[in-house]
Amino acid sequence: MQKRYSIGVDFGTLSGRAVLYDLSTGNSLASAVMDYPHGVMDRELPDGTPLPADFALQHPKDYLEVLSTILPKVIASAGVDPREVIGLGLDFTTCTLIPVTADGTPLCFLPEYQNNPHAFPKLWKHHSPEEDAQRATRIAKERGEAFLSRYGGKISTEWLLPKMMETLRLAPEIYHTAAYFVEAMDFMVWQLTGKLTRSASAMGYKALWHKREGFPSKDFLTQLDPGLANLYDEKLAGPILAPGSLAGTITPEAAERFGLAPGTAVAVGMPDAHVAASALRVTSPGTLFCLLGTSGCHMLLGDREISVPGICGFVEDGIMPGFYGYEAGQSCFGDLFGWFVEHQVPAAYQAEADENHISIHALLTQKAAALSPGESGLLALDWWNGNRSILVDFDLSGMILGMTLLTRPEEIYRALLESACFGTRMIVENYKTHGIPVNEIIACGGIAKKNPLLMQILSDVLGLPVKLAASDQATAQGSAICGAVAAGSKNGGFDTLEEGALAMGRLSDLVYQPKAENTAIYNQLYKEYATLHDYFGRGENNVMKRLRALSREGWRP
Is the pLDDT of residue 235 over 70? Predict the structure, then answer.
């Protein structure tokens, strides 16, 4: 029997990774990773042009360079014939939006726009359009727009519409020159297939599209700005395809550039968090699956529409065909711990880690694990990058309460771990309060594998067992499953995402069980967290917003 393979490519916030899977066993045979040469541009453009506060841009050259590097490498490492690779799927962080010409060329590639920040991809955590998001939400509420209830009652600055409003307001030449605005995942699928297609998942969660009703009305867009009237008809034109659909096949030009065989099936792109469902065998309601990386995404399947305030939205067929996919999230998860390690750890701790040949994260985790819940006397709000759910407010900021002259770094580190878990519990409680059952938890992503202390705290805080993905590359595995579904069973793949999930999805044997004595203490701490959450996040004390406003006035790149 001839072997058949599929490749999943996961484009994260800082790097891209390709993993090649054997479809007969579901096992990964090889992987390759590469960091983006330009990383996240939040201070200046490559030519030195300074960026305003809260900008977060990327360079599409990085996506192309990464793909042309890691695809040939993963095929060579696995020792397979490219003609045996029947499918490819890819996922991206969203909303990451690129203005392009009619042939798909990013405007930032054109000499006349290389110093214009709005010509570059605006990353998901590009938070400068917060006022646009608030204005769009206010107008939608005033008009009684029905779509708003599907998105927790607010339009997030992380989504497409505020980014478009900002571009039209500050750089109308970019808005009008661009033939299209495309999600980064759709841009890369276009590069591979020569066809512009749109991800139904991205359009549903980030662009306010509904499978039955379409996009919001022109009247709504016109009230936002008359220049936006034809946004959905023109700037977002293109077929919208469901998860696992065939977007097209590899063109001869792309085959030569990226090392694959012409005619290889390419699946429509997917948001990174959503595509993990099939790798985790999530094919029915009741299971909360969490992608824990730079940010955190917390998703569920449902069999009916339920409006839940503060979530990122629910979309029919948005995660798994046949179900409504519910999404909420935390805009700062791994970034929070990374910030502390990068900016707040004493030199003596780094020296101790070096002496023991371990990472500073590992050292802090060891020291933090020796502490009992509540022992530090600290409590933190995990809003270092604003709040995605359930407040949907990116003018909020982080806080640590209870520090003294005796407070040690490991105590702060543990408090930050706990705060991230409290933020997750806030999301879980919000789901349950509004009729979405949460019966079990599955976590995936690098942090889930690397930090057992965090996973134990998460189980203790939630009072539920926490299962793990078998693979530390669940998103890439989910994309590979999509690639195999796009190829279809006639070519050695699968006909549905559910079939692919049951054939290739894997969970680890390791399950974190809640410790009753820890859960009892965390229940007390969570009450205090919830009090601070509402005090600073629901308008009783807007000091965070006032401080942010002062900071922006004094911003210097």
Answer: yes
The CA-atom distances, in angstroms, between 94 and each of 13, 91, 153, 203, 474 are 10, 9, 20, 10, 17
Alpha-carbon Rg of the chain, whole angstroms?
A: 23
pLDDT over 90, % of the chain: 96
- Name residues whose C-beta falls within 8 Å of residue 175's C-beta, 6 or more positions apart in sequence: 99, 164, 167, 168, 227
Phi and psi, residue 187, nearest 5° = -60, -45
Q: Which residues of 223-248 are buried (b: 16+ CB within 10 A; e: fewer)?
A: bbbebbbebbeebbeeebbbbbbbbb
| Contact indicator for 127, 295 with CB cutoff of 8 Å | no
- The answer to whether residues 82 and 259 touch, using CB atoms and an 8 Å cutoff, is yes
Contact 423, 390 (CB under 8 A): no
Contact (Cβ atoms closer than 8 angstroms) between residue 514 and residue 463 = yes
Nearest-angstrom CA–CA distance, 392 and 152: 9
Q: How far is the C-alpha of 369 from the C-alpha of 134, rounded, in Å?
A: 41
**Angle (deg, nearest 10), helices 497-504 and 474-487:** 130
Give the Å distances, CA to CA, from 336 to 332, 340, 534. Answer: 6, 7, 21
Taking only the tens place, the pLDDT of each residue in 292-319 is: 988 999 999 999 999 999 999 999 999 9
**Helix, strand, coil share (%) of the chain residues, nearest 5:** 45, 20, 35
pLDDT over 70 at 557, yes or no: no
pLDDT at 555: 56
Q: Which residues of 118-153 are buried (b: 16+ CB within 10 A; e: fewer)?
A: bbbbbbbbbbbbbebbbbbbeebeeeebebbebbbb
Amino acid identity of residue 86, one-letter, is: I
E strand map for 130-192: 180-183
CA pair distance 157, 531, nearest whole angstrom = 25
- Predicted pLDDT of residue 551: 87
- pLDDT score recorded for residue 294: 86
Q: Band the pLDDT of 2: cuts 50, 70, 90.
A: confident
Provide the residue type at 331 as one letter. Answer: S
How many H-runs (helices) and E-runs (strands) does the chain carry?
A: 19, 20
Host H or E run for residue 400:
strand 399-401
Q: Is 107 exposed, middle or buried (0-12, 13-18, 19+ CB in 10 A)?
A: buried
List pLDDT tens digits, range 39-48: 999 999 999 9
Enumerate residues 6+ apart whose C-beta is below 8 A from 139.
220, 223, 224
pLDDT of residue 505: 95
Contact 459, 440 (CB under 8 A): no
Provide the whole-model pTM: 0.92
